[in-house]
Amino acid sequence: MGEVGDYTTINISCPNAFGGEPFTDSVKLESLLKKIFEIQKKKPIFLKLSPDLNEAETDSILEVCKKYPVDGFVCSNSTKKRVNIIDKDLPEKGGISGKPMEELANRQISHIYRKTGGKYVIVGCGGVFSAEDAYKKIRLGASLVQLVSGVIYEGPQFIGEINRGLVRLLRKDGFGNISQAVGVDNR
Predict the structure, then answer these.
(1) How many separate domains does the chain show?
(2) CA-to-CA distance for 74 and 121, rounded, in angstroms?
(3) Which of 20, 88, 110, 133 has the fewest CB atoms within 10 Å distance of its CB?
(4) DSSP code, position 100
């Protein structure tokens, strides 16, 4: 599994892939993970999930993952749902990222954290355009926050703005570090 990067993400959720998302099916996911973990793991492995999964589908994925050394989940990829979309001229196919999928990602973070008791590392992704957005994901259960659309629209200095804002929010709530805030809204 290569020497590039600090972790490996297995994306089982690409909304733009031909044939849909076959690995959200527990039997197919089991087969995939079995093959993946035949290779000696050298770094953490995360599954990237669709925000469009319902709780039962997510729970089924979690059950399969219990059998393998999956380290965590990226919550989440882009959404196929066209709710909260301002621009009605967007194409009907493909995924939507950014603010329109923020609440879907947050619900998934919260559900996985509660369901697993914080056993897994959760990478919160989707709709982060401020320190408050990132902090909400952390308080719901994300140990890490991934910035994508926000960096595209705000530029590279956005990362520093988020970090400074997180320090301010942590201090305001009496936390000495981020790990103290992870999942606090779900305990």
Answers:
(1) 1
(2) 9
(3) 88
(4) G
Tens digits of residue pLDDT in 81-124: 655 555 555 556 666 666 778 888 999 999 999 999 999 999 99
Gap between the Cα atoms of 112 and 62, Å rounded: 8
Domain that holds residue 104: 8-186
30-36's contacts with Cβ under 8 Å and 24+ in sequence apart are 30/64, 30/67, 33/64, 33/65, 33/67, 33/68, 33/70, 34/68, 36/10, 36/68
Eight-state DSSP code of residue 146: E
Answer whether residue 67 is part of any domain: yes
In a domain, 2, yes or no: no
* Structure confidence at residue 12 as a pLDDT band (50, 70, 90): confident
Q: Domain of 64: which CATH number?
A: 3.20.20.70
CA 80, 16, 72, 125 torsion-angle sign:
negative
